[in-house]
Automatic annotation (TrEMBL):
The keyword ATP-binding applies. Keywords: ATP-binding, Glutamine amidotransferase, Ligase, Nucleotide-binding, Pyrimidine biosynthesis. It catalyses: UTP + L-glutamine + ATP + H2O = CTP + L-glutamate + ADP + phosphate + 2 H(+). Catalyzes the ATP-dependent amination of UTP to CTP with either L-glutamine or ammonia as the source of nitrogen. Constitutes the rate-limiting enzyme in the synthesis of cytosine nucleotides. Residues 357-565 form the Glutamine amidotransferase domain. This is CTP synthase. Residues 49-319 form the CTP synthase N-terminal domain. GO terms for cellular component: cytoophidium; cytoplasm. Pathway: Pyrimidine metabolism; CTP biosynthesis via de novo pathway; CTP from UDP: step 2/2. The keyword Repeat does not apply. Transmembrane segments: none annotated.
């Protein structure tokens, strides 16, 4: 859900963009073009190729970005690529996780609540994944137990080996065949990321499953990429290889031998270190790849390609591809170079509850960054803990309180993302009220939209006790209520999830114009509460117009403030690295910044604000 407040003096500095996301092109390269390498593989008929990405030494080393980059490189060669993420936790899915546990919960078209790495896969590869592309220990055990209850094992003793390991292999082989591209053709490459690190007790059944699977798939169809850390202690300044040696030794002891060792480091690794890893880890020097910290993740595919990974995969997996860089990778390089040359900055204040960990709002950050990049700006995203904006903080810690408000006031725009629970809501309401009264550019997503409705009710309708039933079940003015289908007894999978259709009620809608006068839009949702439909008329009498609703006409999802710049969306919008929206420009305001926002692979269109509303759709290429 989202809400945006009007611009006044800032219209000359910041203008927001909206568009038809389905036809958008964000990054330089779009897979709509057919490169010569793609023609080479179009008619190729070969067995499914599996690439397993494992990690060692520490978690969070960047396996997801490595896996996504490998998929991007292979897709640039004309191959159809899919991805699977394995999370060894016992939870069925990520839906009930605190964002501090694993970062944001990423929502898929089919309503799957999954790990944020699947968002990286979708953005890098321009594909649509499904909930079964995220395997968890909980899903596997639930699947096996259900089969046992059904009698499928015919009275056998059900064990980790072979029943759990067989279930993992069967799941991977079946899901690898599911089409994820718009052409609905079966994938040719499946990139599998195994979460955690080698040696974790939770991951042992999966390691054993792939030890067996490598022989079932045959050598030409399976390879293992091991991502490890090469630390450089400040005391000596020397890059240490022992952690990588131990990690590879542990992996081999479990029955898997790495075909490529990807070494993560803070600085570029010296050639002597590469030779040492090659010697002690029993691989050729060309099988040791270095990925050091870079200015942006856009450079990772380029680093991999420069070290000959295309040529290696061509021979190792017997792929019918050209080992020369494709046009797509060349455009990736241009885009990465352009990112580093940006000088103009746009600052956005993100007022949230989980600001201590940036992964909690990973998709929001990525969408803003992509959109800023598209119009030659660098993003300065300022995280503000909503509690720091509350009056109680002014009493307890005045310095923190005034610093938070200073950051909020100097931002070019304000974003309040989704969340759950009452903690920090008063601070968000204060930020929303300030944005509305000061005509500051503002976007609220999910809870941010709900609180914007609460703020409007309290200060414009004079309902001082207006609230959401999530926070005050006994409020006399419940402007936000839980949805009828919500089951208060269960938390997991009980929200309104996945791709939904929103229908425009009127042609007189700012957002509809920005969508090219489409009658409806289809985007992703993740919310448990909605605006109270019985109170809609009260809001509309005061100028808050509900211009979009669900297909049944019961659930209000798009709101615009009459004759002013205000839009509320209860949608989860999709945006990929390869796509960006057409740019709409107000004729009376010279636009300088166009931004789009993200919420769990949800991309909220920011729109254009101008005194005389007159828009022209300009589908541009930013290269």
């Amino acid at each position: 859900m989202a809400i945006i407040f009007p611009l006044s003096t800032l219209t000359r500095k910041l203008v927001w963009d909206a568009a038809t996301l389905r036809r958008s092109t964000l990054l330089a390269a779009v897979y709509q073009k057919r490169f010569p390498a793609q023609d080479l593989c179009a008619a190729a008929d070969f067995p499914m190729k599996y690439i397993l990405v494992t990690g060692g030494v520490i978690s969070g080393i960047g396996k997801g970005i490595i896996a996504s980059s490998i998929g991007t490189i292979l897709k640039s060669c004309g191959l159809r690529v899919t991805a699977i993420k394995i999370d060894p936790y016992i939870n069925i899915d990520a839906g009930t996780f605190s964002p501090y546990e694993h970062g944001e919960v990423f929502v898929l078209n089919d309503g799957g609540e999954v790990d944020l790495d699947l968002g990286n896969y979708e953005r890098f590869l321009d594909i649509n994944l499904y909930k079964d592309n995220n395997i968890t220990t909980g899903k596997i055990y639930q699947h096996v137990i259900n089969k046992e209850r059904h009698g499928d094992y015919l009275g056998k003793t059900v064990q980790v080996v072979p029943h759990i390991t067989d279930a993992v292999q069967e799941w991977v082989m079946n899901q690898a065949k599911v089409p994820v591209d718009d052409d609905r053709k079966e994938p040719q490459i499946c990139v599998i990321e195994l979460g955690g690190t080698i040696g974790d007790i939770e991951g042992m059944p999966f390691i054993e499953a792939f030890r067996q699977f490598q022989f079932k798939a045959k050598r030409d169809n399976f390879c293992n990429i091991h991502v490890s850390l090469v630390p450089q202690p400040n005391a000596t300044g020397e890059q240490k290889t022992k952690p990588t040696q131990n990690s590879v030794r542990a992996l081999r002891g479990l029955g898997l031998s790495p075909d490529l060792i990807v070494c993560r480091s803070a600085k570029p690794i010296e050639m002597a270190v590469k030779e040492k890893i090659s010697m002690f880890c029993h691989v050729e020097p060309e099988q040791v790849i270095f990925i050091h910290d870079v200015s942006s993740t856009y450079r990772v595919p380029i680093l991999l390609e420069e070290q000959g990974i295309i040529k290696y995969f061509k021979h190792r997996l017997n792929l019918p591809i050209d080992d020369q860089p494709s046009d797509l990778l060349m455009k990736w390089k241009k885009m990465a170079d352009r990112y580093e040359r940006l000088l103009k900055v746009c600052s956005i204040a993100l007022v949230g509850k989980y600001t201590k960990l940036s992964d909690c709002y990973a998709s929001v950050f990525k969408a803003l960054e992509h959109s800023a990049l598209a119009i030659n700006h660098k993003l300065d995203l300022m995280y503000i803990d909503s509690i720091d904006l509350e009056r109680s903080t002014e009493v307890e810690n005045p310095v923190k309180y005034h610093q938070a408000w200073q950051k909020l006031c100097k931002a070019d725009g304000i974003l309040v993302p989704g969340g759950f629970g009452i903690r920090g809501t008063e601070g968000k309401l204060q930020a929303i009220s300030w944005a509305r009264t000061k005509r500051k550019p503002f976007l609220g997503v999910c809870l941010g939209m709900q609180l914007a409705v609460v703020e409007f009710a309290r200060n414009c309708l004079n309902w001082k006790d207006a609230n959401s039933t999530e926070f005050d079940p006994d409020t006399k003015n419940p402007v936000v209520i839980d949805m009828p289908e919500h089951n208060p007894g269960d938390m997991g999978g009980t929200m309104r999830l996945g791709k939904r259709r929103t229908v425009f009620k009127t042609q007189n809608s700012v957002l509809r114009k920005l969508y090219g006068d489409e009658m409806f839009v289809e985007e992703r949702h993740r919310h448990r509460y909605e605006v109270n439909p019985e109170l809609i008329c009260c809001f509309e009498e005061k100028g808050l117009k509900f211009v979009g609703h669900d297909t049944e006409g019961n659930r209000m999802e798009i709101i615009e403030l009459e004759k002013k710049f205000l839009e509320c969306l209860g949608l989860s919008w999709k945006l990929s690295n390869q796509k960006r929206s057409p740019i709409f420009r107000g004729s009376s305001v010279p636009p300088r910044v166009f931004l789009q926002a993200y919420e769990t692979f949800t991309s909220i269109p920011w729109t254009v604000a101008c005194s005389n509303w007159d828009t022209q759709c300009l589908l541009t290429t930013w290269m």
